[in-house]
Design goal:
The complex is a heterodimer of chains A (288) and B (170). Chain A has 288 residues and is an alpha+beta fold. Chain A has helices at residues 5-16, 26-64, 75-80, 199-208, 233-242; strands spanning 94-99, 102-107, 111-113, 125-128, 149-154, 168-169, 177-183, 188-194, 211-212, 217-219, 246-253, 262-266, 272-274, 278-286. Chain A is built from 5 helices and 14 strands. In chain B, 39% of the residues are buried. Chain B is an all-alpha fold and 170 residues long. The longest helix of chain B has 22 residues, at 8-29. The chains are: A alpha+beta (288), B mainly alpha (170).
Chain lengths: 288, 170
C-alpha cells in the first residue's frame, strides 16, 4: 500500500530533522552576494573589451587576405612591424600570468608548473589545467597540512556573456576558499584556490586583477604533450612558430630528464610577451 | 510581494534567516551531502540576490528559489573539474565533530535513494517544500500530469523502501 500525502510529509520532515546544518550565514552571504553583483557589472565591461579586441584582429586578417597575388604575411612578420607599446606592468610584487591576451596578477613567489603535477603542489603555484590534476590524483600523505594558494589556467567552455563565479569560503579554520573566473570571450578560465588564513583577501586581489592585455601583447602558450611529459624541441618549436613567435634555443642540464626535452622557456609559459617576439627554448643536452 | 519600507538587503537577509534551514535540508533530500547542500544553497541564494527584485515580484517566492536551487544542483553535477568542489575533507581545525551528522544524512539518502532523480525532485518539492502540483510543473518545466505520475510512483517506491520498513514509517 502506497504512502498517503500526510504520511509522506511527516516522513520527509522526520528525515530532514536528522540533518544538522550550520546556522544561516546571513552576513557572509550578503558580502559574497554583493561581490557577485559587482563582478557581474565588471564582466560586462570585460566582455565588451575582449570583443573589441577580437574585432580589431578580424580587420587585420581581412587586410592580409586582400590581394590574391600576395600570400598572407606570416604573423610574426606582420606583427614585428607593429609597435606594441610599453609592456603592461602589474602591481609591485606581482607578475602577470595567463592565456592568450587575458592575464591575472599573482605574487612573484608563486611558481609556475609546466610539468605534470599529481596531487596538490607543495608550494604556492601557477599551473596549467593540462598538468594540474590534483583533484583526480590519489591522496598523498601530508598534502592536507599544506597551506597552499594557487591559480590554474585553462580554457573555458562557457558561452560568451556567462557570469563568472565569485570567491566563496567555508567557515573552517583556516578558511578554505575557491573561485573560478571565466572570461568566455577570451577563451580563458582561471581557477583560484587557497587554504591559508589570508587566502580570502589574496584570492580576492587576484580575482580583481583580471586584465586584458593591450594590442601587441600576448602570453607564451603552454605546449601540451599527449603523455603529459616534457615536450620535445620539435613539438614546442612548431607550436610557437605557428603562434607567430621567433624561437631561439639554449642548452640546459638533462639531469632528471632526457636529452632533447624542453625543460622550460624564457619567458615561461603563461608570461607576457610581445606578439611575434622571441621565445627561448631551454633544451636538455647533457646530464653534466 | 515587495514589502514597502524594507530594503533589498534587509529583505534578502530576512529570507535567508527564515529559509536557510529548509533550503539546506531540501538539498540534502535531493541527494546532496551536507557540505554540498550548504554550498549549493549558498550559491543559489547568491544568484537570487543578483535578481532579488524579480524574486520579490515572483508569484511564489519559494518556488522561484527552488527553481534556482535545482538549476544550481544540475549545473553542479555537470561542472568541470576546476569548478567549485565542495568536500567533507576540510583542513584540520574544524570545531564540531560531524561523524554523527554524516550517519544521519546517510540514512536520509538511503531512504530516498530508491527513487529516480525526477521522482525525488517532485516528492521533495511537494512534501517538503510544500509547492502545489501546478507550481512544481512550472518549476521543473514539465506537464502537471507528469508531476502526478512521478508523485504516485515516488510514493509507491518509498512505501517499499527497506529503510522505511525499519521503523521510519510514520
Amino acid at each position: 500500500m502506497s504512502l498517503t500525502d500526510d504520511q509522506a510529509m511527516l516522513l520527509l520532515e522526520r528525515l530532514a530533522d536528522r540533518v544538522h546544518e550550520r546556522p544561516a550565514p546571513v552576513e557572509s552571504l550578503l558580502l559574497t552576494s554583493r561581490r557577485r553583483v559587482r563582478r557581474r557589472h565588471r564582466n560586462t565591461f570585460l566582455a565588451c573589451a575582449v570583443a573589441a579586441t577580437v574585432v580589431v584582429g578580424g580587420i587585420g586578417v581581412i587586410r592580409w587576405n586582400d590581394g590574391p597575388e600576395s600570400p598572407p604575411a606570416p604573423l610574426a612578420d606582420a606583427d614585428r612591424d607593429a609597435d606594441p607599446g610599453e609592456k603592461p606592468v602589474p602591481a609591485p610584487g606581482t607578475r602577470y600570468v595567463g592565456r592568450g591576451n587575458v592575464v591575472v596578477a599573482v605574487p612573484q613567489s608563486w611558481e609556475t608548473f609546466t610539468q605534470s603535477v599529481c596531487a596538490r603542489p607543495r608550494v604556492d603555484f601557477v599551473a596549467f589545467e593540462q598538468v594540474y590534476t590534483g583533484y583526480r590524483c590519489p591522496f598523498i600523505e601530508g598534502a592536507r597540512e599544506l597551506q597552499l594558494t594557487g591559480v590554474t589556467i585553462g580554457s573555458t567552455g562557457y558561452a560568451p556573456g556567462k557570469e563568472s563565479l565569485g570567491v566563496s569560503c567555508r567557515t573552517s579554520r583556516p578558511p578554505q576558499c575557491g573561485a573560478s573566473i571565466h572570461v568566455p570571450d577570451g577563451g580563458v578560465s582561471f581557477r583560484l584556490e587557497g587554504y591559508a588564513n589570508e587566502s580570502p583577501d589574496l584570492l580576492e586581489a587576484v580575482f580583481e586583477s583580471v586584465t586584458i592585455l593591450p594590442p601587441g601583447w600576448t602570453t607564451v602558450p603552454y605546449v601540451e604533450t599527449e603523455n603529459r611529459g616534457l615536450p620535445t624541441k620539435r613539438d614546442v618549436r612548431a607550436a610557437l612558430e605557428a603562434a607567430g613567435f621567433q624561437v631561439d634555443v639554449e642548452p640546459a642540464s638533462a639531469v632528471g630528464t632526457y636529452v632533447g626535452a624542453v625543460v622550460g622557456t624564457v619567458p615561461a609559459a603563461g608570461e607576457v610577451v610581445a606578439e611575434g617576439g622571441t621565445v627561448t627554448l631551454r633544451v636538455a643536452v647533457s646530464a653534466y | 510581494v515587495r514589502r514597502p519600507g524594507i530594503g533589498k538587503d534587509e529583505d534578502f537577509a530576512a529570507y535567508v534567516a527564515a529559509q536557510w534551514r529548509r533550503l539546506v535540508r531540501s538539498a540534502v533530500l535531493l541527494g546532496c551531502s551536507l557540505p554540498e547542500a550548504e554550498d549549493l544553497v549558498q550559491t543559489a541564494l547568491e544568484r537570487c540576490y543578483v535578481k532579488w527584485p524579480q524574486v520579490q515580484r515572483a508569484r511564489h517566492r519559494d518556488a522561484y528559489v527552488a527553481q534556482v536551487l535545482l538549476n544550481c544542483l544540475r549545473q553542479s553535477r555537470r561542472r568541470r573539474w576546476w569548478s567549485e568542489q565542495p568536500t567533507a575533507d576540510l583542513p584540520e581545525g574544524i570545531a564540531p565533530d560531524v561523524t554523527g551528522r554524516v550517519d544521519d544524512v546517510d540514512a536520509v539518502l538511503r531512504a530516498l535513494g530508491s527513487l529516480s532523480a525526477g521522482q525525488r525532485e517532485v516528492v521533495v518539492l511537494r512534501y517538503y517544500v510544500h509547492l502545489t502540483e501546478t507550481q512544481i510543473a512550472e518549476t521543473l518545466g514539465i506537464a502537471p500530469g507528469t508531476v502526478k505520475s512521478r508523485l504516485a510512483r515516488g510514493l509507491a517506491a518509498l512505501s517499499v523502501s527497506t529503510d522505511l520498513a525499519e521503523g521510519q514509517l510514520p
